[in-house]
Amino acid sequence: MMYPFEVPYREIVADLDSYVDIIFADLASSFLLFPRGKGFLEYESFQKAYEVLKHATGGFSTFEAAQVLEAIKENVLTFVVLQTSARESPVGFIPGMPTVGALGESCYNGEQRF
Fold first, then answer.
1. Which site from 62, 78, 99, 102 is most exposed, i.e. has the minimal number of CB atoms within 10 Å?
2. Is the Cβ–Cβ distance between 4 and 14 less than 8 Å?
C-alpha cells in the first residue's frame, strides 16, 4: 500500500484507517535511530538519571543546588540530564526548571550555558 502523500485525497478518505495504520507503523523515535558508537547513552540509563533528579527535586517543584548535587552523587548521569535540558531551549524541557538563580547566576545566559 502507498503512503497517504502518494495517493489522491479521495483514496485516503475512502480508506482512512489503513492510511493511518501505515503512518503509525512507520513512526520511530529519532533517539532510537541514532548511531550507537562508543559512549552512547542508552535511553534506560538516561531515564533512570532523569527520575533521580525528578525525585531529588520533588518533581522539579524545588530546584536548589544542594538537591541537584545529591542527585548527581546518587547517579552521575543526572549531570547529563541537566546539560541536555539546558541545551534543548532557553528554558529547558524540565517542567518548572528555573532559568535564573537556583544554581548560580544563570542556567542559560546568552551563549553561556549551564
1. 62
2. no
Q: How far apart are CA 8 and CA 89, in angstroms?
A: 39
* Helices assigned H by DSSP within the chain: 9-14, 16-26, 30-33, 43-56, 65-74, 78-88
- The pLDDT tens digits of the residues spanning 36-60 come to 788 888 889 999 999 999 999 999 8
Q: CB-side exposure of 15: number of CA atoms within 13 Å? A: 11
Q: Is 6 helix (H, G, I), strand (E, B) or coil?
A: helix
Which residue, 44, 54, 35, is CA-closest to 93? Answer: 54
In sequence order, the β-bridge partners of residue 101 are: 104
pTM value?
0.51
